[in-house]
Design brief:
Length: about 150
């Protein structure tokens, strides 16, 4: 099961970064490459503990739906969303925010596993880990731009 770590330094207060990262409208702005849409649950505004959202997105040319829940929440330090329904066997995304050097170090930890046993493990290792790390890095870059300009 891959465990990814992606760091983004943002020249903005931790509280602002935390709130932007849990905002559905901002999430949709920062995931343009997959054409994400929030189609059920919380579909606009900021998510809180035990909120659900269902995203519809296109990855690898395939339209998919993924429902996740905020399962841990400690503003402005961290929150965790976890897949409850979707294409993965398991997906957990931990968002951490550390005050650093007059700004915020945002750290994304993601661990996931695909279904289908050994075949899924190969897909995870040789394709999805790189794809997901790039996806998180791009989202972090976009969130950084939004936080630093507003």
């Amino acid at each position: 099961m891959p465990r990814l770590r992606v760091e983004t330094f943002i020249q903005a207060p931790r509280e602002k970064c935390f709130d932007l990262a849990r905002d559905i409208d901002v999430h949709l702005q920062t995931t343009g490459s997959s054409s994400e849409k929030a189609v059920a649950g919380v579909t606009t505004g900021k998510m809180e503990l035990h909120d659900f959202v269902t995203f519809e997105a296109k990855h690898f040319g395939i339209k998919q739906r993924l429902t996740s829940e905020i399962v841990e929440y400690d503003r402005p330090h961290f929150f965790v969303d976890q897949m409850v329904k979707g294409p993965f066997k398991r997906l957990r995304h931990e968002h951490r925010f550390e005050a650093r050097d007059g700004g915020t170090l945002m750290i994304d930890f993601m661990d996931f596993s695909s279904p289908l046993g050994p075949l899924g493990w190969c897909v995870d290792k040789f394709a999805l880990a790189t794809y997901m790390a790039r996806f998180l890095a791009e989202r972090g870059k976009c969130l950084k731009e939004i936080a630093e300009r507003t």
